[in-house]
Design brief:
Blueprint lengths: L2 H17 L2 E6 L5 H11 L3 E5 L2 H11 L12 E6 L3 H14 L4 E7 L2 E4 H9 L3 H45 L1
Antiparallel strand pairs: 1-3, 1-4, 2-3, 4-5
Length: about 170
C-alpha cells in the first residue's frame, strides 16, 4: 500500500470512529466472503462492517481519541461502526455468531467506554428501545394510579365514617 493510500485509509477510518456511537470489534478468521456479506446485510442501515489492517485502524482510533482498545488489535480484526441502535447491531452480530461460530466478538467501545466481549453480549440481550419505552410508560402509569388512589382514599374514608355515624344515629333513634 502506498503512503498516500494509507493516509487516505487512516483518514476514512478516523472519520468512521468519530461519527459512530459505538464500535464493535470481531475476529473473522475462517469466514467466507459470502458469510461476511450475510453479516453486512444483517447490519445494513444500523451499522457498517469494515475489515481493516490493525496498524491503520490503531492509528485512526488514536487520532479519533478512542482509547483502551489497543489489546483488541490482534489477529484479523473487523470493525462494526454503529450509527443506529447499538443493541440492534449487537443482536445482529449475536444472531450471526449462532449460525457461524467462527466469528469471535472481541469487545468494543460505546460512547468512550471500553466494552468486553461479555458486555457486547449483554447489549445484545437488551430488549428493543420500543419495549423499554413501553415498560417505562407502564411504570409511570402505575405510579400515577397509585398517587390518585392515595389522594382519593381520605375522601372515601370520610364518606364511610359519616355513613356509619348516620346508621348509628338511626339505630339509636329507633
Amino acid at each position: 500500500m502506498a503512503r498516500t493510500d494509507k493516509s487516505a485509509a487512516i483518514a476514512e477510518l478516523q472519520k468512521k470512529f468519530e461519527s459512530s456511537s459505538a464500535v464493535l470489534l470481531t475476529e473473522y478468521r475462517g469466514l467466507t466472503v459470502a458469510q461476511l456479506q450475510t453479516l453486512r446485510r444483517a447490519l445494513r442501515g444500523n451499522a457498517e462492517y469494515v475489515v481493516a489492517k490493525n496498524t491503520l485502524a490503531h492509528i485512526a482510533a488514536k487520532n479519533a481519541g478512542v482509547e483502551g482498545i489497543d489489546e483488541l488489535f490482534s489477529g484479523p480484526t473487523a470493525f462494526t461502526f454503529v450509527t443506529g441502535d447499538v443493541a440492534d447491531a449487537a443482536k445482529a452480530i449475536r444472531d450471526f455468531v449462532k449460525e457461524n461460530p467462527a466469528l469471535i466478538v472481541k469487545g468494543g467501545v460505546l460512547e468512550g467506554s471500553v466494552l468486553s466481549a461479555d458486555d457486547v453480549k449483554k447489549l445484545a440481550d437488551l430488549e428493543s428501545r420500543e419495549v423499554l419505552l413501553a415498560k417505562a410508560a407502564g411504570v409511570l402509569k402505575a405510579t400515577l394510579y397509585q398517587a390518585a388512589y392515595v389522594l382519593k382514599a381520605p375522601t372515601s374514608k370520610v364518606v364511610r365514617t359519616i355513613d356509619a355515624l348516620r346508621a348509628k344515629e338511626e339505630e339509636a333513634a329507633a
